[in-house]
């Protein structure tokens, strides 16, 4: 058996085959995936993951939020587990790797340890968190947020999708309500492996992103109330145009984000017009402003300014305006010891690497509230994610999984 840091690698072909097999469940229309949380496809993906874990000798636990915990026992009965995980749910037009790579790389770590005959002192738990994406039920990272005590379970169960279906009802419908109390589990450490979802690693030719921080986020849901009217026969001066108010707010958000450069972003990715007819001015527009920064002062300042300016824009047009925060987390600093462990693993394995700040939110952001946590990233082509064209190479996937393997072994400890 090779010592950690020398020749140990995951089985790159097996990891890649697992990714491709999971991608067959909930296929998209352009090569990616539509496996949104708590759909029938999500349930099918969970069953496949469970079958693979059974084959690797793992035992399953499921909590009342549907979070899946697959355990490989350690040799020390008193040692807290090392958790490795991410999510299997996708965006409506998602890629094959966002989240899924982290779950299946965790499984591959266990499979590789089995192949090598390595036992660890600490147990290892591969985790699939429910509803990380927040595409169907806002906010994102919902179940890990309940686990970390950020949200209550009642709040989570009451969240509704655009069709009015609740999280709790849909979790029950697909048959994945477990019996464990959410958050009762204790962690020794938490690792999450993910594609970058940005262009930096590929542009700089780096194999590994050593994630030191995750930028904070606010999702602000605006509801603008205008007056439905015929687009052709209503004079311009007599319109109460909620769509125009939305457009001006979007421009304001862009300006606020640009004025806080560097290290700040802002935009809108979801809009609902009502009645959404070609020749009817909208009576109601609902949209979500997404602002992010690793700087707490910038993040808070952008929110304050946007919430102050938007009502003024609407008032000038006679449009009603209300805003509700539907997602939030403060900037996260990941555990320095685990960050150093990841960095050393990359160096020992000969992979090029750089420190990086995650631009997206991840379950690791909430896990960091209850245990030492960090992340590993691999490049993705053109930085594209939340898109069916999302792509990585087998070599990129394997490199990050190799680093994950060594970081987990270092943290879990090899049994004597």
From TrEMBL:
Coiled coil: none annotated. InterPro entries: Amidase_Cbmase, Bact_exopeptidase_dim_dom, Peptidase_M20, Peptidase_M20_dimer. Pfam families: M20_dimer, Peptidase_M20. Binds 2 Zn(2+) ions per subunit. It comes from the Bacteria. Residues 215-312 form the Peptidase M20 dimerisation domain. Zn(2+) 1 binds at residues 87, 98, 194. Zn(2+) 2 binds at residues 98, 133, 386. Its cofactor is Zn(2+). Keywords: Hydrolase, Metal-binding, Zinc. SUPFAM superfamilies: Bacterial exopeptidase dimerisation domain (SSF55031), Zn-dependent exopeptidases (SSF53187). GO terms for molecular function: hydrolase activity, acting on carbon-nitrogen (but not peptide) bonds, in linear amidines; metal ion binding. CDD domains: M20_bAS (cd03884). Belongs to the peptidase M20 family. This is N-carbamoyl-L-amino-acid hydrolase. It comes from Shinella granuli. The lineage of its organism: Bacteria, Pseudomonadati, Pseudomonadota, Alphaproteobacteria, Hyphomicrobiales.
